[in-house]
Amino acid sequence: MQQSGFRSAPVSQALLYFIVASSLLASILDIKHYFHIQIIPHLWVYRQVWRIFIWQTCYANAGELLFGALAIYHLRTIERLFGTRKYASFLAYCFVATNVAAPLLLATVFRPLTLGRMNYLPPGPTPILFAALAQYHAAIPGVYKFRLLTSTNSNGEDGPGITLSDKFYVYLLSTQLALCQPPGSLLSAAVGWLVGYAWRMDLLPKSKWRIPKWLFKDSQGAEFENLRRRLREGEGVADATQGAGPRPLVRQILDQFRGAF
Hints:
Elements: H1 10-28, E1 37-38, H2 39-43, H3 51-54, H4 62-74, H5 76-82, H6 84-113, E2 120-121, H7 126-139, E3 145-149, E4 161-165, H8 168-178, H9 184-200, H10 219-243, H11 249-258
Antiparallel strand pairs: 1-2, 3-4
InterPro entries: Rhomboid-like_sf
Membrane topology: Multi-pass membrane protein
GO cellular component, one term: membrane
């Protein structure tokens, strides 16, 4: 059963709060122009290499911020699957890899191929979100499927349609994010997806790297211990109920409302 909120997903919660706060702060202070990258003049002329390290720390407009925040919320399932330490290590690794890979590809491949027309890389953590989306696509199965009818027959019967799963909503949000500022946003999304899959297939160096364990408190162990305690209590109640024989119908109804059924 899918849990609502950020239970067992503190890294996703912290990432969401950070992106919202940094984007709002950049807008209030009017410093959004420091976060995007233009190969010319930022890198080749002014040598502003520091932009490579900060361009994924905030979004430039409200639409991208909305879609990014919704994507982070839905991708929290990956953190519950990986565990907090592994997911934080994955995001940190992809952050460093995509920070370098996207501007490098733009400067050395896509800008020359487009004769200088493709020169802009929009700000925002779109690459690491698509790296997480690659894990979501590969590891999370669909819960249910539904069919969208494209037409109906003349006799009223269902015509051809498109079968989609519940994961369609996450892909729709991510597609909107990738199309916000093309072609730069498309490049960011593609680089993130490729880095995410390469990390999953162990094609990148040091892909087994993890953040030191001492930075994380053992919150999962406490949750498992609480779950085991509740299961033991449930087994004790079940044994006592079986030993007492069948209960009257009125007692069963009252126990159900008291939470003891």
